[in-house]
Amino acid sequence: MSFMEIFLLALIQGLTEFLPISSSAHLILPSALLGWADQGQDFDVAVHVGTLLAVVLYFRKEVGAMAVAWFGTLGVGPGKHDKSSFDGKLAWWILFASIPLGLVGFLGADFIESHLRSVAVIAATTIVFGLLLGFADIIAKENVTVEQLGLKGALLIGVSQAIALIPGTSRSGITMTTGMMLGLSKENAARFSFLLSIPGIMMPGGYLTYKLVSTAESVDWQVLGLGSVLAFISAYACIHYFLIIVSRLGMMPFVIYRLILGAILVWFIMN
């Protein structure tokens, strides 16, 4: 891979992992328009590691509090005397909400890979779920706190995350859409989506790592290291500025962008 390929693909992965605009829709464009070869599973693992480190570091206080409280619910560690803390409940909600993604990914990965990775599917989902995001942004009541979301609400967001395995849907986009429809504010929907992304990234990242190790292929560690660092930097900056944009402008800038991107993909198919 050339430096330009590494730079652009890592930047795209870092930005689109957390923006509600679909990473798959963007990663298909360089190969389709520029004729680049597939970056390979080893590079996918590297950029996933970078984005995972970014979200964990950005929400380190929340993640640390949730980890301590979660172990406390099991009677272990410094939080074992406070088993009723909300951080512990939130940790369980996120774990349970990640189950649908794991099940659908395990059972349907081959079907999705074989039948749903076409440009036509990505164009359709980019537009349809972009419109759905816009609808949620318009009707958002913002009358429910994360504490009031409950396990049922968290599971609904988790089920929607599983739908994002369809390329072009956007994991962050559909989970934020569901969160806003359940009454969360735009910022709280985004924050819950980011926390939910931690196990959401770990599962496919772990699977890709297993496949990489099992094939015993030689890897270019310089390429992987550079890709991981670039993905980390772009993802960390993306999270920070996205939360600012959402609090001021809402989701509409991303809805408009998705519709434009979808139109470009439709044009590409037609030509």
Automatic annotation (TrEMBL):
Annotated GO MF terms: undecaprenyl-diphosphatase activity
Keywords: Antibiotic resistance, Cell membrane, Cell shape, Cell wall biogenesis/degradation, Hydrolase, Membrane, Peptidoglycan synthesis, Transmembrane, Transmembrane helix
GO BP, sorted A to Z: cell wall organization; peptidoglycan biosynthetic process; regulation of cell shape; response to antibiotic
Pfam families per UniProt: BacA
Keyword Protein biosynthesis among record annotations: no
Compartments where located: Cell membrane
InterPro entries: UppP
UniProt miscellaneous comment: Bacitracin is thought to be involved in the inhibition of peptidoglycan synthesis by sequestering undecaprenyl diphosphate, thereby reducing the pool of lipid carrier available.
Protein name, entry field: Undecaprenyl-diphosphatase
Organism: Thalassotalea marina
Taxonomic classification: Bacteria, Pseudomonadati, Pseudomonadota, Gammaproteobacteria, Alteromonadales
